[in-house]
Amino acid sequence: MKNILxxxxxxxxxxxxxxxxxxxxxxxxxxxxxxYGGTSxxxxxxxxxxxxxxxVIIVSPDKHLGGLSSGGLGFTDTGNKSAIGGLAREFYxxxxxxxxxxxxxxxxEKDDYGNKGQxxxxxxxxxxxxxxFEPHVAEKIFEDFVEENNLYVYRNEWLDRKNGVEKSKGRxxxxxxxxxxxxxxxxxxxxxYEGDLMAAAGVKYHVxxxxxxxxxxxxNGIQVGVLHHGHNFSKKISPYVVPGDPKSGLLPRISAANPxxxxxxxxxxxxxxxxxxxxxxxANKITFQKPPGYDPRQYELLLRVFDSGWRETFNKFxxxxxxxxxxxxxxxxxxxxxxxxxxxxxxxYPRRREIIKEHENYQKGWLYFVAYDxxxxxDVKYQMQKWGxxxxxxxxxxNWPHQLYIREARRMIGMHVMxxxxxxSKRAVNQSVGMGSYTLDSHNAQxxxxxxxxxxxxxxxxxxxxTPYRISYGSIVPKKAECENLLVxxxxxxxxxxxxSIRMExxxxxxxxxxxxxxxxxxxxxxxxxxxxxxxxxxxxxxDKQRLELSQTL
Length: 554
Description:
Blueprint (H helix, E strand, L loop, with lengths): L27 E9 L3 H12 L4 E4 L26 H13 L11 H4 L9 E2 L4 E2 L4 H14 L3 E3 L10 E4 L2 E6 L5 E9 L5 H5 L4 E3 L4 H4 L24 E3 L2 E6 L25 E4 L5 E2 L13 H8 L9 E4 L3 E4 L21 H24 L5 H7 L3 E3 L19 E3 L7 H4 L8 E5 L3 E3 L3 E4 L5 E4 L2 E3 L5 E4 L13 E2 L8 H7 L2 H21 L8 H10 L11
Parallel strand pairs: 1-2, 1-8, 2-5, 8-24
Antiparallel strand pairs: 3-4, 6-7, 7-8, 9-17, 10-11, 12-15, 12-16, 13-16, 14-15, 18-23, 19-22, 20-21
C-alpha cells in the first residue's frame, strides 16, 4: 500500500479495495492525480502515476477498462511498431506471453494461427510482442495492471458536465459525478474519447473538420471527389426509392444536403461503428438475430451495391486467435453508420445512449439482412450464415462489444496543434512525448447525391506517413490561461486529418503514460503543467522506455 494511500480530507472520506468498484457510501475522495476515463490511456496513465510514487484514482464512466483495445479492436492499427515503447509495448508483450500458453488456444492450435494477418503480423518473436488478440485477453491484461499496482478504480461514474468541475485560480480543484461522489486532486487527466472533462473545465476545443485554410493543409476539410480506400461507390447507383426518379424520394441513410466544397470546413465527423468479434466455430457461435425495430428498407442501398457486382463483404473479417475475427467497416455500405453521429460529441448522456443504441441496431440489422434477406445474392448470404457472435466474448453484454468506436469527437486546441505538416514530417516537432506512424486515416463523414444524380460517400482518406513522427508535449496540454493542472492524452490538440493518424490505441497508451509522467513532475516541482522542465520530462520518459525520437527506433 506504500505511496498509494488516499488521503482523507473529510471525516466521511473512505477507501475502496484496490481494483474494485467503489461503493458510494462515502461521496468524497482525494489523490494526487485523478484520471477521468476508462480507456487504455487511462490505465497506462494510472500505472505510470503509481510507479512514480503518486496516489492515483481512475474515475471511469465505463464498467470495462481498456476502451477499444478491449472492446473489439484486436487487429491493432500499429503503423511502424518500432515507434511504440514504454507501457504500450509492455501491454503487447503481455499479450505475447498470454498466447505462449497452450491453454490460451481453446478453439485452434497455436501453429494453425500463424504469424500473418493482412499486413499486420500477429507475433514478433524477437521482440516478444503480439499485436493481434482477443478482446477478453486485452481486458484481463488491463485488469492485471490494476491489481498489480493496487490501483483504485471507481466505475460507472459519470461526470456532472454542467456543474461538476470546481476551479480556482486557473486550476481544477475537484470534479463531481452524477452520483454525488467528488474527487479532489492536484492534477487531472482527461482520458475519455469524448473530452468531457476538458470541455467542462473550460478548455477550448474543436468538433468537425477544419478548413484547409486554417492550418494551411491539403487533406483536412471536406474531400468531395477524393476516393482513397475503396469505401465508396465505384459504380453508378441511384439513391432514389424508384431508381432514377428524384420525385420518389431518397433511400434511407442518404443526405439531401449539399456536401460542400472541397477543402472547406464543416461540423461533420467521421463515422462510428462497433468492431465485432465473430466466429465460424459452431460450438462458440451465436446466430445473428433480428434486432428490435428491424426494417429491411434501411439496407436497400446495399442490395443495389450487390446488384452492381460488388463482392467484398468479407474482406475486413480480420483473423484474431481462436478462430475469431475483428470485423471493421469495408466498402460503400458497411458497418460505418455514416452521418448518424454528428451530435454525439456535444450530446448529453441520454442522447449519446440513443446514438449508441441506434448504431448497435443498425449493425445488427445489417448482419441479419445480409444473412437472411432473400434478395441478397446466394453466395454472400450463405457465407454470412456461417458466421455468428463469439459466445465467449462480451458475455455480460449479449456478446456485443461494450464500446462504440468513437473515432473522433472533441479535439483540444492546446499549446500546440498537430497538423498534417507534423505528421507527414514536413515540419519539425519540439518536445516530443511519444511517436505516431500510422496512415492519416479518416472514415467517411457523409453520403450524398452527386450532381449527376448518383450516390457517393465523402470523407474517406488515407495518406501514408512517410516515417514515424514526434508528437508534441504541447498537444496534450491546454493553454495556461485555460487550465494549469489538466492533461489530455486522447482528445489531443490536433487538426482533423492529423488526428486520423494519432488516434490509434497504441498511441493513446503512449500519451497516457507521458501525461502521467508530466503530472507527477508538476506535483513535485509545484508548477503549472505548462511550466515543467521538458528536459527532465524527456529524461524520465526515456528512462521508462518511451520512444521519442526516430533515432531510438532504428
